[in-house]
Write a structure and sequence with these properties.
Blueprint: H1 6-16, H2 31-49, E1 56-62, E2 76-81, E3 95-100, E4 103-108, E5 123-130, H3 139-157, H4 161-177, E6 183-186, E7 192-197, E8 200-206
Antiparallel strand pairs: 1-5, 2-5, 3-4, 6-7, 7-8
Helix pairs in contact: 1-2, 1-3, 2-3, 3-4
Length: 209
Amino acid sequence: MGQMTRLDAVNQCLLAAGEAIISDLENQSGVDSSIAEYLLDQYTQDFQLRGLANNVYTYDLKVDSETKTISLPSNIMSLDMITSCYNSDGELIRVSVKKSAGASILFNVTDQTTNWSSYSNKTLKAKVIVKLDWEDIDTPGQRSITASAARRYQMLTQGDRDMDSYLQQDELLYGTKAKPEICLVKIELSGMLVAIKNDELSFVLMVEE
């Protein structure tokens, strides 16, 4: 999907610090390129956690008939329940993602259990954010991540303030281009149209009925 390779991104980081580029990430990997790769991974994760057009979706949660657990996507990064769940005491159940035998399952934080037998005959819904491979991130997103990683790498290795100011402009430019589209959602109260981006209220417009 994206036009940049990880090698391109790492080389952008190296060039930002005035260092020589490399031709591959395995045979020519060194301390400098390893730092650049690490920063790239960190910024990639931070960027994806904001939620992208192709890594956020509604996921149906179903209880396994044998284990009584609820399986989650293996590449899940974050989860927010849409369906409200309550325990036998009437308390709202808080949840988190738990690793078990290499798989991701839903954990009941309130009752400290992975057993969801009380919801065996129901389908719960949650909003999930999943981790994409670098190649599956669109080009504006790749450029935004690279710009942020390159700026950080330059400051860590060289600390050139003038170069940092220059790289900041790139970061702002590509960061703006990579922003997810605003989703317009109509709410029934007063016939208003609310723009929501990443679950945050952005602006409100009055709509003629």
